[in-house]
From TrEMBL:
Database matches in InterPro entries: ANKRD_45/46/60, Ankyrin_rpt, Ankyrin_rpt-contain_sf, Ubiquitin-like_domsf
Keyword Electron transport: no
Swiss-Prot/TrEMBL ANK repeat ranges: 160-192
Entry annotated with the keyword 4Fe-4S: no
The name this protein goes by in its record: Uncharacterized protein
Alphabetized SUPFAM superfamilies for the sequence: Ankyrin repeat, Ubiquitin-like
Keywords tagged on the record: ANK repeat
Pfam families in alphabetical order: Ank_2 (PF12796)
Length: 234
């Protein structure tokens, strides 16, 4: 028996629309958000999905044909309130605002007790990684440079295990991808679905990034063989 599939239109905060095709009836919201993370460049934990009437959808909820969804249905992305300022600042390429609202400045400009320091550090780390993921997707090279310069983890991941390199690869931002790799981004990190940046580039038809990642992987393998056999011994 064939499984019903449907197409979902998702309206982003800037009113652009992402189209998700061939979704299987019964797919849950978490799976939809996982796909949107790469298609829209939004880390899944900074937004929720809502119905056109404003009703919020929980991550565990399933979309079932003829029950709560139909082919061609529309949902909206709603950025969670405490992420709105950072989202807007990155989207508008406002480097100064991202520096301050990203929490980066908290490292040196806040006096906090030991009990709160861990929470603050985690918040700073998370916001920095979110900003770098979004910037890499959008191809904002100066923004990426600022974030890396102030110490944002270039290999930090989203809740689905995706790095800034996954984001750049999904959008075929070759210049950004090369910049990230030159500054320490690891090309072999896989997400929770087992997908590397190369896998993402292939699935998103990001041909320039795919070609370059393949070459980089071949070069790394070649270098590893030389290190293991410096004299050419077999």
């Amino acid at each position: 028996m064939s499984v019903d599939t449907f197409t979902l239109f998702v309206v982003l905060p800037d009113d652009s629309v992402c189209t998700l095709r061939n979704l299987a009836s019964g797919v849950n919201i978490e799976e939809v958000k996982a796909r949107l993370e790469l298609i829209a460049g939004l880390p899944s934990h900074i937004f929720i999905l809502i119905y056109p009437d404003g009703e919020k959808l929980q991550d565990h909820q399933k979309l079932l044909m003829r029950e709560n969804i139909k082919d061609g249905y529309v949902l909206r992305v709603h950025v969670i309130e405490h992420w709105e300022t950072l989202y807007n600042s990155v989207f508008r390429n406002n480097i100064e605002s991202v520096y301050h609202n990203g929490g980066v400045h908290l490292k040196g400009n806040m006096v906090i007790n030991a009990e709160e320091s861990g929470k603050v550090e985690n918040a700073v780390y998370d916001r920095g990684c979110v900003a770098l993921f979004m910037s890499s997707f959008l191809g904002l090279l100066r923004m990426c440079n600022m974030l890396i310069t102030v110490g944002v983890d270039i290999n930090g991941t989203t809740q689905f295990g995706r790095t800034a390199l996954h984001a750049a690869a999904s959008k075929d931002n070759l210049i950004t991808l090369k910049y990230l790799i030159d500054h320490g981004a690891k090309i072999y990190i896989t997400d929770l679905l087992g997908k590397s940046p190369l896998d993402v580039a292939q699935s998103c038809a990001s041909h320039m990034c795919e070609k370059n990642l393949k070459i980089m992987q071949l070069n790394l393998r070649g270098n590893n063989k030389i290190v293991k056999n410096p004299k050419g011994n077999i």
